[in-house]
Design brief:
alpha+beta; Elastase, domain 1; Neutral Protease, domain 2; 6-stranded mixed sheet; 5-stranded mixed sheet
Length: 388
């Protein structure tokens, strides 16, 4: 999966089976409005559909990736729309397989009379839209319930997500202006890139652009990708979908659990990502930011779950450390809270791995004090990936 990112009118593309982001910055970007409040425990299932507001309705959707789920739609003029008025007007549109980014105005809204959407297969164009709507609602709810953040920018406005972008396009892309994301239909237009973690990954890029505004240096961009991987995993754990059990694998729903795009416990399992930092690891031929995200992904996994062998939801993990010393995890809720605090108060356009270490230590000290078990765990997890 390729996710292209363009900020300040710069675009980058990457090869198939990789993800990049498109983020186009604006001089008038709204303030994030993030609040660093107490984290809440993940729910035991998908977040309930919120109480209805004027014009909202509870719908049944049949997605390709998420299965049969409840989503929130809008009733207007006797027809239902894939717009969620309870989540800032979050909207899903059909890109009609148009090829260019400038074709946004050619897209078509999804509307219907019966408020039942998709059939779980690619024979209905609504099925991928159900995936995107449900996943974006889950991402919205995760950031709201855990960090009191309403929408990517914290302004209670939802993005527009476009499905059916291009033909045979195995990538997804986030765009900051207008706040949006686009998702391809995959190989032979039969494998849409609309899994829960793929959509949450793109949603998080919009959060990052409204907060840290990561820059173009290899390490800063790698931290951008890692941030999206981290919170995509956290959204999966919140949703706890039977059709997509939460894990620390990325894009396993598209490519299969035997060959996901990325592994957080041991990034090198993909054959390209490093487990540990070393001088020059993020430059030259080693500079693909999606691979270099592995260092921060590995740090986060160690901070949350610890080193060594572990089985979670039937998935076996075995996370190494650079010196063989054991690391004890503090749990994903605390780990995510520390990363979010650093994202919104410490990280910026020049943040690299050493600065990320300093920023997460400051975040841990602010949240849990020093000395504290959490502060010490951050130190040990960074040391375990050779960032000192």
């Amino acid at each position: 999966m390729n996710r292209a990112r363009s900020t300040r009118k710069r675009r980058r593309k990457r090869a198939a089976l990789q993800m990049s982001a498109v983020v186009v910055a604006t001089a008038a970007l709204a303030a994030s409005g993030a609040m660093a409040g107490p984290a809440t425990a993940a729910t035991g299932g998908p977040t309930p559909v919120p109480a209805q507001t004027a014009g909202s309705a509870t719908a049944t959707g049949h997605g390709i990736r998420v299965g049969t789920v409840k989503i929130t739609t809008r009733l207007r003029n006797g027809r239902y729309e894939l717009t969620d008025p309870t989540r800032g007007g979050l909207t899903i549109k059909d890109y009609l397989n148009n090829e260019y980014f400038g074709d946004l105005e050619l897209s078509k809204p999804f509307t219907g009379k019966d408020n039942e959407w998709g059939n779980g297969t690619t024979s209905s164009r609504e099925s991928a839209a159900v995936d995107a709507q449900f996943a974006a609602e889950q991402a919205w709810d995760y950031f709201k319930n855990t960090f009191h953040r309403l929408g990517p920018r914290g302004d209670n406005k939802g993005p527009t997500l476009y499905v059916h972008f291009k033909k045979n396009f195995s990538h997804a892309q986030a765009i900051d202006d207008p706040m949006a994301a686009l998702f391809g239909d995959g190989k032979n237009n039969k494998k849409p890139i609309t899994s829960l973690d793929a959509v949450a990954h793109e949603y998080t890029h919009l959060v990052s652009d409204a907060t840290a505004k990561f820059g173009y240096s290899a390490e800063s961009d790698a931290l951008n990708e890692a941030t999206s991987d981290i919170f995509a995993a956290m959204v999966e754990f919140q949703a706890s979908l039977p059709s997509d059990p939460p894990d620390y694998l990325f894009e396993e729903k598209v490519y299969g659990k035997s060959s996901p795009m990325r592994y957080m416990d041991k990034p090198s399992r993909d054959g390209k990502s490093p487990d540990f930092w070393k001088p020059g690891i993020t430059s030259g031929k080693n500079g693909d930011t999606h691979f270099q995200a592995g260092i921060a992904n590995h740090f986060f996994y160690l901070l949350a779950e610890g080193s060594g062998k572990k089985t979670i939801n039937g998935v076996a993990y075995d996370s190494p450390t650079i010196d063989g010393r054991k690391v004890a995890g503090i749990g994903r809720t605390k780990a995510a809270r520390i990363w979010y605090e650093a994202l919104t108060t410490q990280f910026n356009s020049t943040t690299g791995y050493k600065q990320a270490r300093a920023g997460t230590l400051k975040a841990a000290a602010r949240l849990y004090g020093t000395p504290s078990r959490e502060y010490a765990a951050v130190q040990k997890a960074w040391a375990a990936v050779n960032v000192k």
